[in-house]
Amino acid sequence: MGGFPYRWRASKVGRCAVRVVYVEDDDFTRMTTAALLRDLGHEVVAALPGSVGLMDALDSASVDVAVLDLDLGGGPTGLDLAVAVRRRSPKTGVLVLSTYADPALLGVDGPLPPRTLYAVKRTLRSPEQLNEAIELTGDPIRLDESGLPQWWNQGAELPRLRASQIELLRDVAEGWTNAEIAARRSVREEAVEKSVQRLARALDVDTQASGNPRVLMTQAYVQMAGGAPGGDRG
Amino acid sequence: MCRWPVAPQVVTVANLPKAAAADRSLAERLQGWTHFSWRLSIVSSVLGVVAVTLTAAGPQPSDAVLGRAFLGALGALLVTNAIVAIAQWLARVRPHPQHGFALVAIFAGIGALFGAVGYLSTVVLSLPTTVPAIVWIISGAVIVAWWMTTAELGRYARVRAGIERSALAARAESVRDAEALRVRLSSDLLAEAHDELLPVRDMVRGEATDAQATAARIESQVAGSVRSLSHRLWQVNPEVDLRPSTVTVLKTIVTKRPFRPALLSLLYVLVDAPGWFQRAAPLDALSVLSVSVLGIFFVMGVANYLMRRYPHWHVWVFIGAIAVFQVATLALAPWHESLDGRPLTVGEYLLSVPLSIALIVLTTGFGSWWESSKSLIHDYAQALDENEAALFAQTQAAAAATREVAALLHGSVQSRLLAAAQSMRVAARRGDVAAVESALAAAAQALEGLADLEHSSRTDVNARQQISDICEPWREVIDIELEMEDSLLDAQGDVASSLCAVVEELITNAFRHGSATSIMLRAGWESRGITVTSLDNGTFDSSSSTGLGTRIIDSLGAQRHVDLSDAGTRVQVLLPVR
After folding, report:
1. A214 CB near a chain B CB, below 8 Å?
2. pTM for the whole structure
3. Which of B378, B430, B529, B551 could join B577 in a cystine, given CB atoms 3.0 to 4.6 angstroms apart?
């Protein structure tokens, strides 16, 4: 096994087993994904609905990969947990799974911690791709050699938006009016109106078309985030 | 699943339009009364000047004296009108009582001038008078200052009357119905909303066959239902009867309104007392003086009480007060004297009636009008006792929570439904079945999202529980040490929400932007509000100072102070609490 950071075992599909700890707040997704991981031959050390118990799981077993949902509702996000996992167990690889094309859509900024991969859920189109993502996360040498596969996050590219524009887009998608956004940000309503117009241009939303521009912008957000703001997703 | 925190059994405000109409009616009556009393006071003043002139001229005046007397009356009339015109102009220039002191000083100056002109006219016209110049000047200053100030305040009050009364009307009813309202906004009410919207949600979930029709139903029926619910919730704003208790009114008159009868008494003493002490034994003069002053206080107190209690009967109360004063004054007729020092005849006394009326109008009419429309209401609002105030605060919090839910329904939920319907139409046109189902799921999710609203309407969870809920998931990634006063941990409502927002923000910042692994939080009351202090072992990242969390703290009106040291970062947040 040499420098491999995790133990390889025989699996049903002829691959090697990986010890996984999985955090996902949606019960159905957690249940089905954990079952799939087991079916792929991996050992699911713990499948948790939130952060509570994660460190105990890391301490109790030698975990190869932590699979973390990005949006866990209140409290720390998947990226926060990734930072904590890095500190607690440097050898554990981290795979953050999310419906968001970019963490910024959730209001989370900053770079990914080392040895952390970010995958958009809808781009994982088969169990094999999920398996490959798990293996790549746990095998940094292989990752260095081969890099990310071509299918990785394909189709989840974002328009070029600044962080402030993404935040504004979230507000629009959540249904806040310009006046409410202005009040929340302590700026003038006219400034918000101009920002929204610039955002519409950046999103290629035709403000002169028959559709409601805010609805079209909300649609753009839904497409990027994989769901409506505040909805039950990761 | 959480229940939805909405209140379909809306506390309607059926009586609110009635209250508004009553306020308008009262304002109109008061406005009419102002105009009436204004005209009456001017006419009375002119007649009073004529009466004084005739009295001063003596019982059998020569033509020359009579001519000078009419010239004096004419001059006084012109001066009076000039004063009124100037005062009205000043009132237009500075219509707000915040400039009251300057305005009163200007009016007093004009009044003093008026008094001086009056005295000079008696000198120039060689009219005999025993009243010294200083009395003319002070009387003029006081009368005009009081007259114009009360008139000006009354004008301002007329503008404000409707607003103040409406706002305070809502408060009193809130107090009365506080308990019922709170109950109706409780979970039972939310359950009803849940039951109302549940079939709608199931309908959204169940229909995927005809995407266009489903989209139309989502737009018209579902979103419409949410919109309607939000509008009904928004209208929760009960109305009120503001009339005070008798005890409150009497207490207010005794403790807060002694000025007007005192002023009237002062004028009375200044004008009449010298003659009394000249023509009677000091003890007798003092007795009559005391009885007169007490009588003034008594009559004006009763008149004030009646005017406050029955503002719509203001005019009749006022006329009644004048009648009482006149009857009382008639009894003292032998004690009165003309300006040349002789006792008044009955005819002369009757001539002095308009002057008397003018005096009473000045001191009673405008002042009472003003009180009945503004300070009256202010006093009533202040008169809420502690229990009423607590109930009122509770009701206000419940109403605010309801409105917040209404805003979220109208904004977030409705928008998401409309967005989902729009997506569904587009997907249906493309024939993308998966996208249609996705949009359908989004619509259902939007309604499910109502469950999230419950948190925003919960006012019965104390800070202890909320902070525990906040800290629990964070304890996995950062060590948290918490030290708070029990009274803070037991806090509810806005205080708890604000405190929790600050605590969560400090923890989040310490971990995300300071890379801290431990944080110590301490919170306690101080004179200006709640102080929350955090000390973590991380490094402060200045770029975090403009983030969303910072804006959340700013929106609470809090002040932040950050200290950096080798030991870590110390952040102090002062959360103002009213």
Report:
1. yes
2. 0.43
3. B529
